[in-house]
Amino acid sequence: MQFRDFLPVSTNTSVKESCYGALGALIGLLGTALLCRWGLGLEVHWLIAPMGASAVLLFAAPASPLAQPWSILVGNGVSALMGVLSASLVPDMAIASALAVMLAIAAMFLTRSLHPPGGAVALTAVIGGEGIRALGVGYVLLPVLLNSLLLLSLGLIYNRALGRRYPHGGKVAPNRHQTADPQPSARLATQDIDFALQKHEELLDISRQDLQELLQEAQLHALRGRVGTVRCQDVMSRDLVVTTPQALAMEAWHLLSHHQIKALPVVDEGERLVGIITLHDLMIDRAGHQPRGKETLEQQQVADLMTREVQTARRYQPLYDLVEAFSDGGLHHMPVVEGEQLVGIITQSDMVAALFTLALKPGLTSEEATPVSS
């Protein structure tokens, strides 16, 4: 143990967020107090002290698992019940106080509703004075649950108004294949996080999804440092197989089959990119979700089946910019353009080979990189 262990820990919180947290607590507690005291006509016990601690979490740390709605409502509720139970069964106030907090923590763990102010809620039931003790079980409903519900409602409105994700469940990227698997970029991170959390038995004040999101951002930042000097032109295929809008779909099919590729850029007379046609376009009717027949391919032109809105890369664009599109975006190929002219194409094979080469030679620069054909 060293002296610096007692120094404040950096929270990386901006001044703006700090002000938002303080202002939110003012609005939340004032609103709760006014609604209880004047709106409901309560003369006593219209606001209890532990709500101040709940407000700190709700407005200053809304992303914390300890500040989520279930934790606030259930955590405060079961803690109040444990406090009332201890106060009624144990005459000695010191013993009852310690017992109340112990039971509150146990109850919150059992209900997965750990909320630190719950300890104060339980303690208040014991040492809050004769007025609080006289409420008995009624203390759970009024003021505890009423205060908690009103504060939570105001916190929900306030946090949403600021654009915060609350309740905060972490961002879950949609799986484009509509399966339960996480996105490709998250799969290795998921396994690593699960392994680490299994070995770390202490409670961490961060959700699993937030931890995964931070790890992914750190990994992407590190990847940018390794591949930031490599450009699309360094890895793209240059000897391209293309087709035209006027070509028959069957001709495009034969080109794909002969060259063992999965997509053909579609260009006009000036070699300008106007679309792309893939095996999927030729095989599946997107409108009817039905397989296409041979007759269709022999009668229709490429222009009838191609995708016209094509996601492209620029010749000198960093390769890093394409990683997310190829992993989570589900792209298998991306044309590379200079102006409107088609100059190359990058496929998943090109991307995998380039990243593998960079992993073996982390110091590789764009001048040293060699094009990868596919």
UniProtKB/TrEMBL annotation:
Ranges for the CBS domain? 236-295, 306-366
Q: Record's InterPro entries?
A: CBS_dom, CBS_dom_sf, HPP, TM_HPP
Task: Provide the leader sequence positions.
Answer: none
Q: Where are the transmembrane segments?
A: 20-40, 70-87, 94-114, 134-158
SMART domains xrefs? CBS (SM00116)
Keywords for this protein = CBS domain, Membrane, Transmembrane, Transmembrane helix
Return the PROSITE patterns for the record: CBS
Indicate what this protein is called per its UniProt record: HPP family protein
Biological source species: Aeromonas caviae
